[in-house]
Write a structure and sequence with these properties.
By secondary structure, the chain is mainly α. The chain has 2 domains: about 120 residues, NADH-ubiquinone/plastoquinone oxidoreductase chain 6, subunit NuoJ (Four Helix Bundle (Hemerythrin (Met), subunit A)), CATH 1.20.120.1200; about 35 residues. α1 packs antiparallel against α2, α1 runs antiparallel to α5 and α2 packs parallel to α5. The chain is elongated, with a radius of gyration of 29 Å. The protein starts with a helix and ends in an 11-residue tail after the last helix.
C-alpha cells in the first residue's frame, strides 16, 4: 500500500514536471523542471528495484542536460549580468524543485527501512545482468533498430549544420594525388660562377 502511494505520488510529480518543461516560458525554469522529471523517473526506477537504470538516468541525463543547457546559454549569447539579476527571482522555484527531489529520495530510502518492499530478491541476483539478457535476446532487433535510428539522426544533424566557408583553407587529397613531378619541380640551368 505504501509503495503504491509512493509510486502514484512520483508519477504525479513526473507528469506535472514534464508538462511544465514544455509550458515554461523561462528556459531556466524549463531546465529545472526537466531535472526534477529526471530525478523523479530515477526514483520510480529505484522503486522498481532497477538501481542501474536509476543511476544511469541521473548520471547521463542530468549531467548531459546541464551541459547542453550551458552550451545553449553560451550559443545564445545571453547577457550574464541579466541572468545574475534574475538569480533571486529564480531562487524560490529552485528551492521548491530541490526540496521535492530531496523529499523523493528520503521517501525511497525510508521505504527500504520501513519494510514496505516486495519479496526479497534471490541470492546473487543482478538486475543489470537480467536487463542485459532481456535487452540482447528478446529485444535485440528493437535495440539494433534504435541504434540505426540514432546513427541516422547523428549523420542528419552533422549534415544540417555543416556549412562550407570560403575563407578557410583545406587539403584536397584527390588534387594532391594527381600532381606530377613536372608540375611542381622546374630545373633551371645557371652558369657556374668563377672567382
Amino acid at each position: 500500500m505504501f509503495e503504491s502511494a509512493i509510486f502514484y505520488a512520483f508519477g504525479a510529480v513526473l507528469l506535472l514536471s514534464g508538462i511544465r518543461v514544455v509550458t515554461a516560458r523561462n528556459p531556466v525554469h524549463g531546465a529545472l523542471f526537466l531535472v526534477l522529471a529526471f530525478f523523479t523517473a530515477a526514483g520510480l526506477w529505484l522503486l522498481l528495484r532497477a538501481e542501474f537504470l536509476a543511476i544511469a538516468l541521473v548520471v547521463v541525463y542530468v549531467g548531459a542536460v546541464m551541459v547542453l543547457f550551458l552550451f545553449v546559454v553560451m550559443m545564445l549569447d545571453i547577457n550574464i549580468e541579466r541572468v545574475r539579476e534574475g538569480f533571486w527571482r529564480n531562487l524560490p522555484l529552485a528551492l521548491v524543485v530541490g526540496s521535492i527531489m530531496v523529499a523523493e529520495m528520503v521517501t525511497v530510502v525510508a521505504n527500504h527501512y520501513w519494510g514496505a518492499g516486495g519479496a526479497p530478491a534471490p541470492a546473487r541476483y543482478s538486475n543489470t545482468k537480467t536487463l542485459g539478457l532481456i535487452l540482447y535476446t528478446d529485444y535485440a532487433y528493437a535495440f539494433e533498430i534504435a541504434a540505426v535510428i540514432l546513427l541516422v539522426a547523428i549523420i542528419a544533424a552533422i549534415a544540417l549544420t555543416l556549412r562550407r566557408r570560403k575563407d578557410t583553407r583545406a587539403q584536397e587529397p584527390a588534387a594532391q594525388i594527381r600532381v606530377r613531378r613536372e608540375d611542381r619541380v622546374r630545373l633551371v640551368a645557371m652558369p657556374v660562377e668563377k672567382e
